[in-house]
Amino acid sequence: MLAEAQLLREASLIDGIWIDAADEWISVDDPATGEIVGRVPKLGARETEQAIAAAERAMPAWAAGTAKERAAVLRRWFDLIIAHQDVLGRILTREQGKPLAEAKGEIAYAASFIDWFAEEAKRVYGDVVPPHMADKRIVVLKQPIGVVAAITPWNFPAAMITRKLAPALAAGCATVLKPASQTPFTALALAVLAEKAGLPKGLINVVTGSAAAIGGVLTASKTVRKLTFTGSTEIGAKLYEQCAPTIKKLSLELGGNAPFLVFDDADVDAAVAGAIASKYRNAGQTCVCANRFYVQAGIYDRFVAKLAEAANKLTVGPGMREGTLIGPLIDEAAVAKAQEHVDDAVSKGATIVAGGKPHALGGRYFEPTVLEGVKPAMIILEEETFGPVAPIVRFEDEADAIAQANATDFGLAAYFYARDLGRVWRVAEAIEAGIVGINTGLISTEVAPFGGVKLSGLGREGSRHGIEDYLELKYLCMDIS
Ligand code: ADP
Predict the structure, then answer these.
(1) What is the ipTM of this complex?
(2) Would you place residue 351 in the very low, low, confident or very high pLDDT band (cuts 50, 70, 90)?
(3) How many Cβ atoms are within 10 Å of 291's Cβ, its own excluded?
(4) What residues form the catalytic site here (predicted)?
């Protein structure tokens, strides 16, 4: 077992070498206290080139082995992560802020992608195609796409990494990762454990530093054949553009603006429980968090009252404190954004029924908030708040609710509560989103395809589909005459 001091590395990892000298450094702080957790080297273009070259060197031997051999290494990595779940959870909470129980849950979730894709790689079947001419034979191979670059956000410092690296490695690719500068230590700790699991050097390179410099080199490189990114639509679009000259394959998991619909026939207590789970997880800082609630007139008053009551009971505090359910937001700007969304809604006629302002604890804490009487044209319905604020809109009929739910450029997750079977099908089919939670507020799992439509992204992560993005098809046409 490794202790926290051995896992918390103030370094980048390139070609199996921990780079712990740099001219410039990036400080990582604890959102709960503002104290410095540690620092990582601020690397740039030169080191990114080195990391890409290391990945290119490492990949052939790794790809040449069998899926079963790769799975054995990945399985050891999985076991080590599970064995270190507590300490990894603590590192994650310190740099990210989420409650420790949630952080440990994320570690298990992160690990699940490794186990899943290690197994899936054994089932990467090609095709034997009935030929178009009597003297031809056609076979389709699936081969690893090449060096993969991954750029990840701060809200899931562990899961966003394994969701990308596990399918890439399982498929036979080598990787270069740029973790978010707010949360690099979880990524580095995972890399320590990969090394301990026996993953050959150069297959995971972790480059910390300047996003623009590192991103620029990763996107411009002809060696990097795929970029996988989770983050904002704004940066995703920029990376898409930067990848155009080298015609890279892309997976983009971008912003959301998830609607949460509650129909008159819903079980109101279940809907409130689902709303709390979906809205307030990670203090509202997930791309699948419910961002807007639409509640039908017949159930509206009961839902609002019960949601406000439940929100008021959520304990706010440092993630390390036992019993905390809502931790701090990632930074001061996040607090300001939540406040701005509340103020805008109130100035246009919404009413605060719970919370509504920064928490008395000060710092980066914001009260779990519920707003009712929310109407179109309030910013909160149009932009992702990424904070613990639930705005509720009243609606009368189903078609109108669907139209409002779809009146957004985004389409990642959506949720609805209803019991009428016909309605369940109608709404599920009409909602424009990649993921629909029906009578549930929690939808993330490694066994299902995760991803969005419209401006929420490209590609799917997890499930049997998730590995396809790391494979290329090659068709062999043989003349046997
Ligand atoms: P978030 O709001 O989640 O921080 P961002 O899209 O700003 O979303 O950041 C997600 C990831 O993208 C982070 O790792 C960040 O450092 C990185 N990033 C930000 N700007 C760029 C850029 N110009 N090129 C490459 N990566 C970037």
Answers:
(1) 0.94
(2) very high
(3) 31
(4) 253
